[in-house]
Design goal:
Mean pLDDT: 95
Shape: globular
Number of strands: 8
Bound molecules: S-adenosylmethionine
Radius of gyration: 17 Å
Distance between the termini: 51 Å
Strand order of the largest sheet: 1-4-3-2-5-6-8-7
Helix content: 25-40%
Strand content: 15-25%
CATH topology: Rossmann fold
Largest sheet: 8 strands, mixed
CATH architecture: 3-Layer(aba) Sandwich
């Protein structure tokens, strides 16, 4: 079954540019006071869907730039009427800046960001020091950033930025799990890359301080 047009999928799917530019009140947005986690660049939403089903006491917001892809992610939630997961389509940098209250998120998931392989395109990579600052802002104290990728040099850049960031502490790398079935991967890209035999680099970092400047 194809997902219906976006407007019909409200409240599972919203477009950031159609939303009021005021920070989201999570209790109003999700209808409860449960903790919130973000899946940035959620793609087709496998993680947002599986995590929200596995952890009904946590609210998940998937953020996806590409509207068609965001619709596919939202379709999974809409069909199952999942109460604790939503998708907003838009640029994560703007959404973090304008819609997410500082210190309001218990975890950020950032899986398989676009690698922009060509040297002249690398500036397009999402994870920069400004982006690390944005993530630090929205995380609550003790909140965790999870990031996985198959692109070794991108992982090294992310790790180095966070290693030197005064607000993060590097945690031990999570071990690889053996999937039980085809949906038992963290994300669609993890499934694709592991089936291709690629190494996956997994990291997690904890927010340990507020900004001082
Ligand atoms: C390689 S895919 C990975 C998707 C998913 N996380 C996974 O692991 O299967 C990267 C995703 O990030 C999205 N993306 C890229 N730039 C973005 C931005 N500025 N804001 C939100 N999403 C973005 C892309 O549209 C794409 O769906």
């Amino acid at each position: 079954m194809r997902a219906p047009p976006g407007e019909i999928m409200f409240p599972w799917l919203r477009r950031s540019h159609e939303m009021e530019v005021t920070p989201l009140d999570w209790a109003e947005f999700f209808g409860n006071d449960n903790p919130v986690e973000l899946d940035i660049g959620c793609g087709r939403g496998l993680y947002t869907w599986k995590a929200s089903e596995a952890n009904p006491e946590i609210n998940y917001l998937g953020i996806e730039l590409d509207y068609k892809t965001a619709r596919r992610a939202a379709g999974k939630l809409y069909k199952r009427e999942i109460p604790n997961a939503r998708i907003i389509s838009g640029d994560a940098r703007e959404i973090l800046d304008k819609l997410i209250v500082n210190g309001s998120v218990q975890a950020v998931h950032f899986y398989f960001p676009d690698p922009w392989w060509k040297r002249r395109h690398k500036w397009r990579r999402l994870f920069t020091d400004d982006f690390a600052d944005q993530i630090a802002e929205v995380l609550q104290m003790g909140g965790i950033l999870h990031s996985w990728t198959d692109v070794e040099d991108y992982f090294e850049v992310i790790s180095a930025l966070l290693e030197h960031h005064t607000q993060f502490e590097t945690l031990p790398r999570p071990a690889e799990q053996t999937p039980d079935h085809d949906f038992d991967y963290r994300t669609s890209f993890e499934r694709k890359k592991r089936k291709e035999g690629e190494t996956i680099y997994r990291g997690q970092w904890k927010k340990i301080a507020e900004r001082t400047t």
